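Human: Here is a favour to ask of a fellow structure person. Comparing notes only helps if you start from a blank page. Give me a protein, with the fold worked out from its sequence. Please set it down just below, with no commentary around it:

Assistant:
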Amino acid sequence: MAIIETEATLHEAHRDNHTHRDVNGGWLRPAVFGAMDGLVSNLALMTGVVGGAVSHQTVVITGLAGLAAGAFSMAAGEYTSVASQRELVEAELEVERRELRKHPEDEEEELASLYAARGVDAELAREFARQLSRDPEQALEIHAREELGIDPGDLPSPLVASVSSFGAFALGALLPVLPFLLGATALWPALLLALVGLFGCGAVVARVTARTWWFSGLRQLALGGAAAGVTYALGTLFGTVVG
């Protein structure tokens, strides 16, 4: 009994620890990177305008315009990109579905060859392929995974990606504008809030990468800070020249 309980505990531990992060994208990727893009682009835009010594009203309008334009651009681009990718995958699936319908024996032999190439005994590979090919939809799913490296039942949604990207970009772009909307006249509150947001977004990125949260956070903080510094310097230069 003790041995059985020990084995059961080991199986449970393996199951609990053998989980994987989301690597297909879904809503997480466009949301995280949309927020970072909104933060960096709008922070850089606003620091450039502030460097040009413009009025408080101009800074606010610029920030809100950058938020709206960027959010709609991100949403449209994400939708088009994911929709195009999905349409390409569906077209390839239709090709495979047609081949399975017209040449089932050849496709079954192809599947057997794939398993045999991976070390499965040839006779067992043929029997395995024969049984899996009984159901056309199951056969399509297996061929898609083996030949195309995709899961037909887990294709990304263009709408989910678009909405996630829009909302995340708008939220990220709002951070550097918020202090000015609340009456701030200096740049430092907006800069501080945006840099904290950049570190937070970078830390969240660690969920979809192999990096530690602090490394991802500091990296994004450095990149965003560099972009803000460069655009502030350019804004100051342009303001001096134009003025």
User: Anything to note?
Assistant: The chain is about 80% helix and 0% strand. The chain has a mean pLDDT of 84. The two ends are 86 Å apart (CA to CA). The CA atoms of residues 176 and 190 lie 5 Å apart.
